[in-house]
Amino acid sequence: MGDGYGDGAEGVLGAAELFDGVGLAYERAFGRLPAQLAAVAWLTARLPAGARVLDVGSGTGRPVAALLADAGHEVTGIDVSRTMVELAREQVPGARFEQADVRDHTPPEGGYDAVCAFFPLLMMERKEQIAAVRRMASWLVPGGLLVSATVPADVEGLEITWMGRRARVSSFSAEAYLGLLREECGLEVLHHDLSVFTPEVPGGEPEEHLFCYARRGAAAGG
Asked: Please, are residues 115 and 37 in contact by the beta-carbon 8 Å criterion?
């Protein structure tokens, strides 16, 4: 999901520290997210055999990297949390995981057939999110797919309590996020859907999620 996506000031955690503390509890809370499972199934059905896929904010490696690796694809997962990377390496030996920030990641020569980005940018400032999404889009081969999800909200630097921990988040409205994909990144949005999910934790509160499937043009740069 580096510098940790936050300054940790006054008890507010950066992403690395927050997810180091959450660990497997994240998988228990969000590992059976129906819209995410549907997105991975959609992607898997459209990838060529042995496709090269990047999972940004790969967490524990399950379910996303595990499902893609089980389908025979060459999966790289990156996450700023050392704990998450260690868990992913143990749980999904068929994929490769790095402790890395999407803002610093160097793609392989030739890029990726697909990039998955399920909620990895929310603890960045908006300007950093825009740059990160543009970077991910640029790593796609012509015709490559970006499957992403965010929590749609018109907020910048909002302090929240999430899974018992304080964090500072920023996001875009659904309309603005779709505009980012189309106008800033030049991607074709093939599908988008709003859904609500309640994490499987005591006292879990419903969250609105926006899932988007997008494609880079067939011509390089399109």
From this structure: no
Residue 14, C-beta contacts closer than 8 angstroms, at least 6 positions apart: 3, 4, 5, 6, 7, 8, 123
Cα distance between residue 88 and residue 97, in whole Å: 7
Strand-pairing partners, residue 31, are none
Pairing state of beta strands 140-150 and 207-215?
Answer: antiparallel
Least confident of 52-66, 148-162, 200-214: 200-214
Query: How far is it, in rounded angstroms, from Cα 220 to Cα 65?
Result: 27
Helices (H), 63-222: 64-70, 82-91, 126-138, 174-179
Query: In the predicted model, is pLDDT for residue 7 greater than 50?
Result: no
* Distance, C-alpha 181 to centroid of its chain: 14
What one-character DSSP code corresponds to residue 189? E
pTM over 0.85: yes
Positive or negative, the CA dihedral 191, 170, 27, 103 is: positive
C-alpha torsion sign, points 11, 17, 19, 24: negative
Contacting residues for 37 by C-beta, under 8 A, at least 6 apart: 63, 67
Helix (H, G, I), strand (E, B), or coil: what is residue 214?
strand
